[in-house]
């Protein structure tokens, strides 16, 4: 209960902070990002220089052969396991309207951001195995000792290492939470501005932020925190994120077909082939998640495609009717 109250308090405080404007929210995000990187880099450098293990980077580090199907299954599991870490890559697109030069800045932010996270995670995991042998790591994970970073920090720095990890985790959570508050409120605002959502969600304050959308998001987030466990919420968010990714990626093909005359400021590397392959991969991941976590998956389907589509279609038709009525006058 205490954890839920603290989590709700952080959501409320960061929501209030972001009401002061996009500049305030982005400034905090930049500071938190740099601050959380410092302890991570300290641990990585120490592990690289002080570690004595030589990690095996082959696909089967424990030895033995692996079939093609087994390799695909392993890659799918690894993708699902790390999807939460990479999930924020698309959030920057939500604030594209508030960028000075989105045609240049948005692709750069997405490319550099995803590449940086991928490199960082690879180096950090490699650093962990410089200190902990792979077999020992497997035993620890089987015994539900999953915080390998904490173990490495303690072995390298003693009790100070534990403090370093706690500080890093706190900064990372604050940075992630602020990013979600900053980005997701813009979705409700954009839908309302296009006539597909409650009109009050499109209200902009004097500071140029979607104040009503931010407050609505805050209330709904606090309700979910109180009613659901962390594991259920994580599963729900990952599954809903996959739905959003599938719809977003597939939307590239739909829009190219429906609106061929529109300007195309962004190009997808590889064209339709990459779009189709990406869509199929995420559909497969969704099916796998549905099998593993059916309850949260069903809830995710109800919230996003069902309720979301009903609201979208209802307000879209309402706007068309209002435009038609005004034209007749």
Short structural description:
With 329 residues, the chain is mainly alpha-helical.
Query: What does the overall shape look like?
Result: globular
Number of helices: 11
Roughly what percent helix?
Answer: over 70%
- SSE-based structural type: mainly alpha
Strand-residue proportion: under 5%
Largest sheet: none
Regions with little confidence, pLDDT below 50 for 5+ residues? none
| Rg, alpha carbons | 22 Å
Mean pLDDT: 80
Instruction: List SSEs in N-to-C order.
Output: HHHHHHHHHHH
Q: How many β-strand runs?
A: 0
What is the straight-line distance between the termini?
57 Å
Topology:
Blueprint: H1 2-18, H2 22-50, H3 68-86, H4 102-131, H5 134-142, H6 148-157, H7 159-193, H8 211-227, H9 230-258, H10 272-292, H11 294-328
Report on this structure.
There is one protein chain. With 329 residues, the chain is mainly α. 76% of the residues lie in helices and 0% in strands. Helix 1 (2-18) crosses helix 7, helix 1 packs antiparallel against helix 8 and helix 6 packs antiparallel against helix 7 (159-193). The protein is globular, with a radius of gyration of 22 Å.
């Amino acid at each position: 209960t205490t954890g839920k109250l603290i989590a709700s308090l952080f959501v409320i405080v960061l929501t209030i902070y972001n009401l002061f404007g996009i500049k305030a929210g982005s400034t905090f995000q930049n500071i938190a990002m740099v601050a959380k990187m410092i302890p991570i880099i300290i641990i990585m450098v120490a592990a690289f220089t002080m570690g004595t293990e030589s990690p095996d980077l082959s696909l089967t580090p424990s030895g033995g052969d692996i079939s093609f199907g087994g390799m695909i299954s392993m890659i799918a599991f690894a993708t699902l396991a790390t999807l939460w870490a990479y999930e924020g890559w698309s959030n920057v697109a939500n604030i594209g309207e508030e960028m000075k030069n989105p045609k240049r800045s948005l692709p750069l932010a997405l490319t550099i951001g995803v590449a940086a996270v991928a490199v960082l995670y690879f180096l950090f995991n490699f650093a962990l195995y410089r200190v902990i042998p792979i077999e020992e790591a497997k035993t620890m994970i089987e015994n539900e000792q999953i915080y390998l970073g904490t173990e490495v920090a303690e072995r390298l720095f003693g009790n100070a290492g534990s403090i370093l990890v706690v500080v890093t985790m706190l900064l990372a959570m604050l940075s992630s939470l602020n990013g979600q508050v900053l980005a997701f409120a813009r979705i409700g605002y954009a839908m309302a501005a296009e006539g597909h959502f409650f009109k009050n969600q499109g209200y902009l304050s004097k500071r140029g932020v979607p104040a009503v959308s931010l407050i609505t998001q805050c209330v709904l987030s606090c309700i979910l925190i109180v009613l659901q466990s962390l594991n259920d919420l994580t599963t729900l968010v990952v599954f809903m994120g996959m739905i959003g990714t599938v719809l977003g990626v597939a939307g590239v093909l739909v829009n190219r077909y429906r609106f061929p005359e529109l300007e195309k400021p962004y190009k997808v590397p590889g064209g339709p082939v990459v779009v189709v392959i990406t869509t199929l991969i995420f559909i497969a991941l969704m099916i796998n998640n549905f099998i593993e976590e059916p309850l949260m998956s069903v809830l995710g389907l109800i919230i996003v495609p069902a309720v979301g589509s009903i609201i979208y279609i209802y307000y879209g038709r309402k706007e068309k009717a209002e435009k038609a009525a005004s034209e007749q006058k």
